[in-house]
Amino acid sequence: GDSVTQMEGPVTLSEEAFLTINCTYTATGYPSLFWYVQYPGEGLQLLLKATKADDKGSNKGFEATYRKETTSFHLEKGSVQVSDSAVYFCALSDKGNNRLAFGKGNQVVVIP
Amino acid sequence: GAGVSQSPRYKVAKRGQDVALRCDPISGHVSLFWYQQALGQGPEFLTYFQNEAQLDKSGLPSDRFFAERPEGSVSTLKIQRTQQEDSAVYLCASSLDGFVYSNQPQHFGDGTRLSIL
Prior knowledge:
The complex is a heterodimer. Chain A has strands at about 5, 10-15, 20, 25, 30-40, 45-50, 55-60, 60-65, 75, 85-95, 100, 105-110. Chain A is mostly beta strands. Chain A starts with a strand and ends with a strand. Chain B is mainly β. Helix content of chain B is about 0%, strand content about 45%. Chain B starts with a strand and ends with a strand.
């Protein structure tokens, strides 16, 4: 079945550092890809999405490019802030159905 | 409010009891989803409604889990004879339309944290 794999473990970095969170996927079709973010005490929010190969999703300084050849959708931000501290989930939605398949998530902690 | 509302926020029950979790989707949203999120894991799909029709219940872990959306708006997830492994956060999400190829995003509620003692 469809699945998403995120890199293991929390990510701790200093303010203004470069952030990368790896995400790879397995799908039988051509899925849409998403990054969701969960800030402390809040619900899941859509951060960005891409619906076809080579699309780049971007929002709030975050970017991710849909790479069909490497089945990846890595999340990047050039200069993180303390307010970016949250849990980040990669997800896919196969075009054969509407449901989302999520990765395990990565806790990101940004230190001042 | 404008978002997806879930109640209660927290529910504690003894093993064997029945529980009911409520979801109020965004007004006018056709699609409604339930997910289960275990501690330290990503959400896992449970079931999907398009209006009042339950089109996919393949993620429900056992026949103790039952969901309904009788008038195509509010939905209830019921768990009968709860077990400790049912302890999780239950998330509800809604999206505007029901087209399979739609790009409409899913909007999530804050979830109900269920603890089975």
